[in-house]
Amino acid sequence: MLDAISSPTPLSAAATSQTWSHTCTGADILVVGVSTNGVTTVQSVTYNAVSLSPVSGGAIDDGANVRTELFYLIAPAAGAHNVVVTMNASSKFHAGARSFTD
Fold first, then answer.
1. Strand partners of residue 100
2. Where are the alpha helices (DSSP H) in the chain?
C-alpha cells in the first residue's frame, strides 16, 4: 500500500546532488528512482543519512541519452527526513521517492 510520494524541485541546470524531504509514516520500504541525461551514474542515495541499496538489475541506459537507476531501503525511519541523491559527475537529473507499507 502506498505510504507517501515525494520529489525535489526539478533542476534547471546540471548539479552533482539534490536534497528533499520525504515523510515515511511507518513504511516497510522506501524506493528512490533517478533519471539522468547522458550516462552519468548515481554515486549514492541516502535517507536520514542511511544508504539505500541499488535494486539488482535496476539500472537501465541507452548508452547515450538516458539512464535510470532504482534504490531501496527496508524499514526506513518514520518521520520527515532528507533524501540525498549524489551523482558521480555534474548532470541534469530528476529523482523521486515512494514509500510503501504492508
1. 2, 29
2. none
Record the cell numbers describing residue 98, joined without a space.
515512494
pLDDT for 19-48, tens place per residue?
A: 999 999 988 999 999 999 877 899 999 999
DSSP code for 80: E
> Is 0.90 surpassed by the pTM of this model?
yes
Q: Which helix (H) or strand (E) holds 88?
A: strand 79-91
CA separation for the pair 84, 92 (Å, rounded): 15
**Rounded CA separation 15/11 (Å):** 8
CA distance 86 to 79: 22
Q: Of 94, 86, 89, which is closest to residue 68 (Cα–Cα)?
A: 94
Helix/strand/coil percent split, the chain, to 5: 0, 70, 30
3-class state of residue 51 by DSSP: strand
